[in-house]
User: Fold these one by one.
Assistant:
Number 1:
Amino acid sequence: MRPGLYTRPAKPLSIPVERRRGVAPLAPREIAAPVIVDKATECHVTPPDVAERMVAIFGDCGDVMTLEPSAGTGALLTALLNAGQSPFEICAIEREVSLYRGLTLRKDLHGAGCISQCFLEYAEEWKGRGDFPRIIMNPPFRKVKQHIAAAVSLMGQQGHRESAQLVALVPITFEHPDAQTVEELPPGTFSTAPGVRTKIILIEKPGT
Amino acid sequence: MTDYTATYSAEDNKLRLYASTRLDDETFARIKEAGFRWAPKQELFVAPRWTPAREDILTDLAGEIEPEGTTMAERAEAKAERLDALANKRAAQSNAFMRASEDLARAFEGGQPILVGHHSERKARKTQERMHALADKAVKAHRAIDYWQWKAESVQHHANRKNSDRTRANRIKTLLKELRDLQRAYNHAALVLEFWERNDKPEQAAHVIERGLALPTGDLIPWRWAYDDATKDLTPEEMRLKAMENARAVLNGPKRARWIAHVLGRLSYERSMFGDVPRFGGTVTPVILQAFAREHGAHKPKATATEDGRFILESTAPLPLHIADGKTLDLDAGEWADLMQSAGYAVPEPTERRKSSKPKPATLINPTLEDAEKLQALWAKQMQEACAGKGIDAKENTVTQTTQARYSALSKGDYGPGQTVEIGADGRRIRGTWQRMEYVKTGEPVCRIRINTGGGDFHKPDSVCHITDKPAKALPLDFAALMAPQMEAAE
């Protein structure tokens, strides 16, 4: 090669080295692992907006003892607490152990009475010995009639002037002589069972 | 019609080919086979280093090779920008993956459990898997940000390091080594050719092959020829002719000369980056010339100074072509300084010798014959004193008069009879002993002398040596005082 090729353009020999700062580490995010339960529990969680509307049917929340017979993951309890319900005036019943453990670990439910028992057995045990002025429930649909009947048997004023109320989310085919349909929910309300049509009912038991 | 532009960059010793359009299959295959690779970001073909074959292809395609217009620093900056863009892309990906993962996590936000056995289970588990996979991707992309940023920074550092003085100085050393390697093959070929021209009889070739004789630079006949299927059946004479043919191919081949010219071109470029090479202003000595010739690949150069102030550099093989055309070069000191400057050779500054940690030994003296005899008499007297009262007869010895050559022969080896010993002010031999892990001498030496321990016996002193063909000197001993008691006793 000719000697003239052994050269370089008259340009700077070096370049400033830009100091790149290390990237900030990713913020740790807590992704709760979903609970795995058997389908026999029929744990189809009430959507938050539906739960909110169900709680709103009671009117003002506060110090009125409220029963949640099939607490599940606590969606209705969350709506109650958000509406101002005192956790000390809540009684939640859940039969499935892992769901019950989830409820007991919730800090916002400290003070609430969480019972690990089948609601039907609970109702049989307490019928005539205690009552609840407010009951809110999303019962297992397979035994919806038994659960509603058991819940109705526990309704009572417990010293309040207002009549006892039961708000429940039931299949659209459910019928009860004292129940009035408050709202029919559209299909797809439940992510796990989008084809099931449901409604919200209210049963009131007037005081004596 | 494709327009080609071929360039060479002395900075990185790479050849580049710019083509205006996509290459046809034949040309592409040709340049790919030559080692060129497509650089998609720069849109050019680049070869990792210069070779004569690659240069020929570029000359064939482009007509002429031009100096590269971009610098290594510019290319590094462009690459750093690309890598920074990659880092930004990974950051965006990381965010997107994390957002998607969070969107999927909302399915479980309400606490909806996975219902085992329910028809929704499969979808729920799939959603969970996707959520975790997206979170993993987000983490991976986030780690990649750091990697690409580190890479971008390294690219800039690398470009600067390649142009740093220290790297350039080391590169010059490497190039000189390459030059010597190339020149060594030339030297060997020339020596082999000369040998076989001088020893051209078949029986001489047979003798060389039988004995496996070789030159200091390498084999006269490659040893593998005796085992290779293609050559093992050749006669010694055929092997000799083949070896000569190979040597001529090395000497007259076109590529090696181009390699050497290329290395010299690169050396001149690298040296020019350090500024002009200073002309040697000191005193030219044969040692300097030999070092200069050796660095440039001359075979065992021997420089001698003539009486008229000139210096002759000789070698058994032809000197490197950029130094001289032949085996000898006769120049005066000024011309040598000019040649060294033109070859880019700077005479290294003399460095101070490391001081020895050992104490300086006493002066070695060749005693006069008179002093040697006096010392011999003193040693005889000291031996008699040592033996007195023990019932032992002390023996006497005589001075050894010998030549330097004879003494050197006697003193060879650790146990030779010729030895150099230290003596103290009392004329006694200084000996050393180990005391408490320390070597302690029995006295302070005033000088060293040569002795002959040959013919030694019990109670017989060693013989003092007097070298007859070397200048002699009086010993720094006060013989009058040392011999006084003996004189008195004699009187």
Note: The mean pLDDT of chain B is 92.
Number 2:
Amino acid sequence: MVGVPIILDTSVALNLLATGAGLAVLESLGVKCFVCSAVVDEAIYIRSDDPAQPREAVSIDTWLPSGAVKVIDPESLLEEELYVQFAADLDDGEAMSLAICRGRGYALATDDRKARRIAGRLAFPTVQLLSTSQVVQHWAVRTGAAPGELKRILSAIELRARFIPPHNDPLRAWWMRARSLA
Amino acid sequence: MDASAEKGRMSMEAKVLEEIDPRVLGARLQEARRSAGLTQQAVADRMEMARTTVVAIEKGERRVTPPELIRFAKLYLRHVSDFVGRRAHAEGFVAQFRSNERQALEENREYEQVAIELQQRSEDYAELERIAGVSGPRKYPPIYETTGSTIDQVASDIAAAERNRLGLGDGPIGNLRERLEAEVGLRIFYFAMPSKIAGAFAYNEDLGACVAINSNHPRDRRQWSLAHECGHLLMHRYQAEITILLDRRMQTAKERVADAFAENFLMPAAGLNRRFTDLHRSSPKGVTLGDMVSLAHLYQVSVQALVLRLETLRRLAAGTWERLVAEGFEVQKAQRLLGIDANPPVKDLFPQRYVALAVSAFRNGDLSEGQLAKYLRTDRLSSRLTVEELQNRIHREFEGDFTELELDLAQPLGSR
């Protein structure tokens, strides 16, 4: 998929947490995965299976013991400067994630339109971008996931995280097809 | 990557601390420090810098470096984006409150926190308007004169004039908040405050008239507080106020006249008298306690406020409320018996227009999802649900087929 480590921002982390199988999905990527400390600090909730029930708190902390996902912070002056710069236009989790990706040449997994636009405007070296749909599709192909299991994962993201790929996502049609399969 | 490449990249990108007015950044840092309850000396010790450096930074006389800003944010438990994020900056409400409420603010940091919260929400509102390229309605009347008559007469006259201006007639006002937002241009925010604080009002040229109401208070009290703060707009526009619940005898003249305005505005004498007379006519045994509870619900005021108002209007004997209290009358029990839900929670903590502007900015890619959540003071999931709500998906039947339509309530009609 990408040959470099990946940093997940909250938008993608929330979607994967909603599946209950986020760790397996991330492990299938075959590269190191990180979340920055500002993302770990964010309170994340998902919808309960029964919409009448209260939402559920979920945490990235549950991914950490396996070692497949690690917490990361800006380390160099460059990364700190980039973090502050990006924080003028993004929230802290998004800004810190992008700053570290920019500083270290990592890929950024985000579905956020504004974060992707800002990342896309950066001059060489550019930051590689991934989306929830790309990550899930990669997992499905890599593991040969059964249609029923893929549908369960996609449904969980839609229903519990309230996310559907936007119209301009090249994998939206794939998502919708997989979602409607028996 | 070699050092020269890094330097070149930064010269392209890291300009925010050079672009931002150091006085604005200093003011934000000062507000965050005060909010965290830290002295300049304590901060200097923790940051391992001289106190004079902290003073200079807060005054905008010395620029902060990125590593320093990150450490300040950690120390104050704030986000870096709180300091450098692009948002409107206006003259501080805290300073206004401080000059008007010196004693109260100095005695209690909770009051200052209310002022800061109101300022931040109001700045966010102004920033959303800036992003959308729109400005809010400002249909403020001239400031009414409050001298030359008794407090009650002044309040009654102003309430009548304002009702007339807004075309409210003399009946109960069912949608006071919406009317004040749309037809007067008040920026009205609800958030949790200490129970002794009912609300706050502040005005400046940049942000306009801004009101905060304690979301923890019961509906009737919230309605009263809203009318009270509106009274400040009409009579004391340039004097920021925090409304603290005090015994009437302890209130300042300004608070008393604002309360009298609320009483007259919410329960105008003519309309209330007419309804009371109708009740009398329709029940041979006379007006009942149940009638009073229902009438208070209709006017969205407390039963106590209604009974006292009717005492003032001489429709009930003086001392009626005191007698009811002495007899052990329980309002909530009476409301339950009548099936009245007198205390629904606040449905919208922000003005609907504020939420629509925020969602629109997000959908246009002008706000990130994290920023949207911050603007709405909520988490990501709730933000996504709010976006969904404003982008109601509906189905349309066309020649037997149902098609999904997206009804975007935040979209301006002109852009269709």
Note: Chain B touches chain A through 37 residues (CB under 8 Å).
Number 3:
Amino acid sequence: MSCIGDGERREVQITAYLDDELDLTSAVELESHFEHCPACAGELAAQRALKQAIGAADLRYRPGPDQVRRLRRQLGGGQAPPAWRVGPRLRAIAALLLVAVGSWTLGRRWPARPQVPGAERSDGVAGDAGPDASPLAEQVLASHVRAQLAGHPEDVASSDRHTVKPWFGGHLDYSPPVIDLAAQGFPLRGGRLDYVGGRPVAALVYQAGNHLVSVFVWPADGPGVAPTVRTGASPTGAPAAGGVPPAGAAVASSRRGFQQLRWTQAGMAWWAVSDVAADRLDDLVRALRAELPPAGPR
Amino acid sequence: MPALSQLLLPTAWFAEAPAARQMPRTHDEDAKRRRFEADILPHLDAAFNLARWLTRDDAQAEDVVQTACLRALRFFDGFQGGNPRAWLLTIVRNSFYTWIGQRREQEQETSFDEEVHTAERAAGDPELELLRHADAELLRQAFAALPLAFREVMVLREVEGLSYKEIAAIAGVPIGTVMSRLARARRHLQAYLLAHGVGGRP
């Protein structure tokens, strides 16, 4: 028994080893240790047997249907006003009343508003809380996160668009519109180059409070980019496969807590990404879109 | 009439109806709730599972999850990406400890004497077979008998499949502590299974 006095440490190592959480060096050392230590080899076998049984058993507790309903209601509804906790009878009466009033009202409103949730916003932003199915969505998000993690959000740091725009001109085969939004509360921090959809693209970096926003820009009809959004030149929208939004409309999505908005305007595909609150990102995009030539034919 | 309904309609009662999304609400709350629903709602089962294992009681688990969900919604602005499930589980765990502290009724841990039980180790093939074929019911009993600190790391690891790093963050302890707790938890489980699984088991 080579493990006398060392059994505790070995046991912990074996646990981590079976969980694939032991670093490679220690794992290799442990494996060679098993060959001449029956005690540890036995411990490995026992832990492995236990893990096998646990893996085969369903140990998850699931809430019952009633519990799910109660919890979801609370989650979905947020903080109910204190008045709603006064008592079951009042709640029941109030609920009946509200269902009656609500269904009547909504019944009146519903046919006139067949749009997706959130579409009542006047800025043409189509609400969509789910992740964007476009493969570019992941790339764009990764680029934004990577730049932030590296502490290098911009390659050219300047709030002066007359500095940023020529810099892009020297690095790209197109000239992205560069607009400062300081007056609207989103100062331009600069720009950086990124690689998205198989080509170098421009990313404008804006400050939104404590958060940074990356706005990616590339030609909407550029070869090799194949974004799911195209120039909204056709008045019919000419939707193609892949959930192409109507001409000019922005598509919102969220992904692991990051907000994304994409749209086409001024012959460019635009993609804004940030961890800022969704409504702030909406504000920024609305401000930016107001400064750009209108969507549609150039 | 619409104005009246705007005043009266609480979102909670219609949360499950698609119509709720048409409910008048401020833009801010609306966006927040949409994000909350998308990020947090899918992890309700995980939240309940952890709460159920910690409280070892169905109704109490629901209480804890309810408290946790309210907190989660309140603090959701502070959630900046990361793993939403781990984030929610952290809140569930904290809510549980607050809850149990408030009740001033420390759980009577059925922490069995380690000196005695750790003597029972799998030594031969019959014991290994017994461990390997422990059924779900026996395993649930064994898990439930674990001291709280061990139970929570085991559940997070074996049921939720979280990494040591994530577990460390949720439990607020160093990774080394997670490792040693898991090792000791497995020793406890082995001992329990060997003590209670003998006879009548394949």
Note: Chain A touches chain B through 73 residues (CB under 8 Å).
Number 4:
Amino acid sequence: MKLNVNLAGVELKNPVMTASGTFGSGMEYSDFLDLSSLGAVVTKGVSNVPWSGNPTPRIAEVTGGMLNAIGLQNPGMDVFCERDLPFLKQYNTKVIVNVCGKTTEDYLAVVERLADEPADLLEINISCPNVKEGGIAFGQNPKSAEAITAAVKKVAKQPVIMKLSPNVTDITEMARAVEAGGADVISLINTLTGMKFDIHRRTFAIANQTAGLSGPAIKPVAVRMVYQTVRAVKVPVIGMGGIRTAEDAVEFLMAGATAVSVGTANFEDPCATLKVIQGIEEYMERHGFQDAAEIRLAE
Amino acid sequence: MKKFQETAVILSQEQIGEDIYSLWIQTKEIAKEAVPGQFISVYCRDASRMLPRPISICELDKEQGRLRMVYRVAGAGTAEFAGYKAGEELKVMGPLGNGFPLKAKKALLIGGGIGVPPMLELAKQLPGEKTLVMGYRSETYLEPELAAAAPLYIATEDGSKGTSGNVLDAIRANGLTAEVLYACGPTPMLRALKAYAEERGMEAWISLEERMACGIGACLACVCRSKDVDEHTHVKNKRICKEGPVFNAQEVEL
């Protein structure tokens, strides 16, 4: 049975990876699972300098998911390259580094710093709803999205994944824009912007007021957007948004995703990714599929 | 320290105060490994509530591998826990975080509100001279167990028992002194105790609380402001679930 998939020339042993921000750089999860079992580890967003993130409370649970406004707290590219990348390279898995920034120059600084580092792919985060500058500003305007993609592609040594925001009117317009900019792969969806009130304390549940909704609650939106995107572009698509079980992952693969990411479910069960991989294999067996690509629906 | 994902068995469940419940569970490894001040992640059965609830460890029976959690019903998740019966299973992960350092010094153990429970196992394990000061709004809970572990002073906000006021009022009213403070409770209480300890040059260990998602240091939801740069992000944000929940009071800014 062929579980491996190809993303812009990079071969993953299976189509299951982690979603950025839900898995750190894998270190905390290595207590629970062998990272070498994963198709890839997608790191938490890395910026050019350390970011402190947002004030607390940063999260709140909601029915079928959670809201977060962590604000991309991260140690910056130097610590990341000296500590986190060498840690990840001990494992036989692909490393996808999520890159965040406030300005085009910020993004390019990280992409250039990573040029000679052992990162297999870069995922450019133009869709975080929780930082005031940059991030989402590039992800909601097709012209800006195309421009940042082209700028990144010019300096990147690794294939580039552009991660899209669902907080747009027409996802296919954004997908076509980053493809025109030269994106090698598209990943989606990032979180949906939400809000929650604490009715007892009579205040916002999250200090940042608005926050990103993730978890099973957003899965149908994500499946629909992946389906539309797959049909709008030629590059491979990584699907994510509320995947908790293999059955959820299979829906994204049916919609046409080449690979999938497990996000919020890692908080519920550190071994969620392993269960998804195993379940996909079982699904393929039941249906007599020899290749993960056969899961995709023809229409 | 090793963390375990386990399906524990509920041995007993009892309501011991207004919205306060006591649950003894049988674990395989967690109780054997745990130390006072650590916590466990407790998972809901209702799949629409994805995130574990971080619950402090109140008591340990290491020989039998049993663990007691005393928790307050604060929302739908803990309300679900309150409905569980003896014999049922409970998904847990732990032990998590760092516990209180056990010092052989004259100690004051201070708990406020739902910060009371972790002080019980700490009182049982601390080797030196120790005194407990517990603050409640009105009704007390865990009083017999605490009194059996160490001399116990009580403060109530409504004056219905012990000193009228907060834990610091009780410390002053009873002329209590110590070389080291251990505390768990609401932030205003911890802030006051941190200042109290600093004025007197006392050592103080405080247990902090914040909303958590993963409980293992990955999501960066539960950070607190720290005096020095933290080991993870190299900013001034320590992770309560990983570097805490117990901190030297001088390390953190409240």
Note: DSSP finds six helices and 17 strands in chain B.
